[in-house]
Amino acid sequence: MDRPPTEPAVVVEDLTVGYGGLMVVHGVSMTADFGTVTALLGANGAGKTTTLMTIAGHLHPSAGQVRVMGRSVNRLACHQVVRLGLSLVPEGRGLVYSMTVSENLRLHTARRARRRAEEVFDLFPSLGPLRSRRAGLLSGGEQQMLALACAISAGGRILLIDELSHGLAPVIVETLLPTVRSLARERDIAVVLVEQHVDAALRVADFVYVLNRGEVVMAGSAAEVASHATELEASYLGVTSRRP
Ligand SMILES: Nc1ncnc2c1ncn2[C@@H]1O[C@H](COP(=O)(O)OP(=O)(O)O)[C@@H](O)[C@H]1O
Ligand SMILES: [Mg+2]
């Protein structure tokens, strides 16, 4: 790839962005490196999804910079950001529920890379027997696996995941987290994970940013942030941060 070896996968500098003139993210800076999991934590409404959607090119910054693999995406459309190798697993998973597992995967995989659609069954073996099942008939955990599989089969090296744990029982989240971590480590993928559930995120992340009302209020290694977990939950994350 044509990036300098030291350029992080994602660089956000002083990002201000909002909706129809109302700014909801104010001067956020963060980076995400290849081979690591970066968690964006914060209570409901903190600006996590807005930040992720801006990195993915669905929203455009009012001020500041977003670079993906060294390239400014401020003015790019989302399909152009996808071509840089970035995949988004959106809140709500973004599946076509009337289509089967295989059909959903095919939607995301370029014709020349159809083999990759098969490789994801190695990563998520329980999806294998469900190839012909419609996505709408899968359990929540299976749907989240399929959403991850679709993003991976697109073949990029940057994976943004919005609320991995949304609507899932803790036991299901526990089975997905190691897969996310090994994706980053073993495939040198940069994962940016948005989470409301602090415990889950701190177990899987290398680096953590905490957002509150559209600003970064804490940033550090997962261990550093974990050492402030009680104070964080009391000050910024509220009851939603507790695991169900
Ligand atoms: N499409 C939208 N139009 C207007 N305001 C929005 C829209 N989406 C989100 N917001 C507002 O932006 C703020 C940040 O939302 P969001 O980024 O979704 O937070 P989070 O993902 O951390 O819960 C909230 O106040 C929310 O109400
Ligand atoms: Mg959100």
What layout of secondary structure does this protein have?
Elements (H helix, E strand, L loop, with lengths): L9 E10 L2 E11 L4 E5 L6 H8 L7 E6 L2 E2 L5 H6 L2 E4 L11 H8 L5 H10 L16 H14 L4 E5 L7 H18 L2 E6 L2 H7 L2 E6 L2 E7 H5 L2 H9 L7
Parallel strand pairs: 3-8, 3-9, 6-7, 7-8
Antiparallel strand pairs: 1-2, 1-4, 4-5, 9-10
Helix pairs in contact: 3-5, 4-5
Magnesium ion binds next to α1.
Question: Can you tell me about this structure?
Answer:
The chain has 244 residues and is an alpha/beta fold. The protein has two domains: 10-85 and 157-239, Rossmann fold; 95-155, no CATH class. The chain has nine helices and ten strands. The chain has helices spanning 48-55, 78-83, 101-108, 114-123, 140-153, 170-187, 198-204, 222-226, 229-237, and strands at residues 10-19, 22-32, 37-41, 63-68, 71-72, 86-89, 158-162, 190-195, 207-212, 215-221. The strands form two sheets. The protein has a six-stranded mixed β-sheet with strand order 6-7-8-3-9-10, with helices on both faces. 42% of the residues are buried. Residues 239-244 have low confidence and may be disordered. Magnesium ion binds at residues 48-49, 91, 162.
- CATH topology of the largest domain, which one? Rossmann fold
Rg: 17 Å
Structure annotation, total helices: 9
Quickly give the CATH architecture of the largest domain. Answer: 3-Layer(aba) Sandwich
- Identify low-pLDDT runs: 239-244
Roughly what percent helix?
25-40%
How much of the sequence is in beta strands?
25-35%
Instruction: Please indicate the count of domains.
Output: 2
